[in-house]
Design a protein that fits this description.
About 75% of the residues lie in helices and about 0% in strands. It has about 190 residues and is mostly helical. α1 crosses α2 (about 20-40), α4 packs across α8 and α8 (about 160-170) packs across α9. The chain is globular.
C-alpha cells in the first residue's frame, strides 16, 4: 500500500468510514501479526493483540502524521502494545516456589533432556515443534534487548534497516551492526 493510499484510508477512518480500516486490515494484518508474534511466545495472545491493534488504529487514526512512514508508525504501535501486554502479564503471574531445584545438567532439567530425546526419536511430533519454539526463544533470550528488537523488526516485520533506524531513532549503521551481531549470536546457537 502506498503512502497516499494509506493516508486516504486514514482520512476515511477519521470520517467514520470503516471501509478505510478494512483496506488497511486486509493489507497489513499479517505484517502486524508478524511483529506481535515475534515478541509474544503464545500464538493466541499474538492473535488477540493483533485484533486489538486494529481497534486501537480505528480509535487513534487521527494521531497519524502524513509523510512519516505509515509502516513504521503502525509497527511502533503494535510493538508497544505487545510490550505493554508482556509487562502487564509479568505483574499478574504468580510465582510457584514449590518447584524443586533442578539438577545441574548443563542448564536443562532431567525432564527437559528426556523430552529432547523423545523429540529426536519422533521428529514430526507436536513435541518437536514445541521444543523447537522453546529453543528459538532461548536463543533469542541470549540477545541484548536492542538486538532482539532489530531482529524482530527485520525478520518478522520485514522492515528495511532504514525503517528500523527511523523507528528506533538510531543511526542506520548502528542498526545494521546490531543486526549482524545478533545474527552471529544466533548462529553460535545453531540457527541460520
Amino acid at each position: 500500500m502506498t503512502e497516499a493510499k494509506f493516508e486516504a484510508c486514514i482520512t476515511a477512518m477519521n470520517n467514520g468510514d470503516k471501509e478505510g480500516l478494512k483496506e488497511v486490515y486486509e493489507e497489513y494484518v499479517s505484517y502486524i501479526y508478524g511483529i506481535v508474534r515475534g515478541l509474544l511466545a503464545n500464538k493466541e495472545e499474538a492473535e488477540d493483540i493483533t485484533s486489538d491493534f486494529f481497534i486501537r488504529l480505528w480509535e487513534k487514526s487521527d494521531t497519524y502524521k502524513p509523510g512519516r512512514g505509515h509502516k513504521g508508525w503502525m509497527a511502533t504501535i503494535a510493538r508497544n502494545m505487545a510490550v505493554d501486554y508482556i509487562r502487564k502479564r509479568k505483574r499478574e503471574e504468580p510465582v510457584d516456589f514449590s518447584e524443586s531445584r533442578e539438577e545441574d545438567t548443563g542448564g536443562a532439567s532431567i525432564a527437559q533432556k528426556a523430552d529432547w530425546m523423545q523429540a529426536k526419536e519422533n521428529p514430526n511430533s507436536v513435541e518437536t515443534e514445541v521444543l523447537a519454539e522453546m529453543t528459538i526463544q532461548e536463543a533469542m533470550a541470549k540477545l541484548k534487548e536492542a538486538e532482539r528488537k532489530i531482529v524482530h523488526m527485520k525478520i518478522m516485520g520485514q522492515m528495511t534497516f532504514q525503517e528500523i533506524a527511523d523507528i528506533l531513532e538510531e543511526p542506520l549503521g548502528t542498526v545494521a551492526w546490531r543486526y549482524n551481531q545478533a545474527i552471529k549470536t544466533l548462529r553460535r546457537c545453531g540457527y541460520e
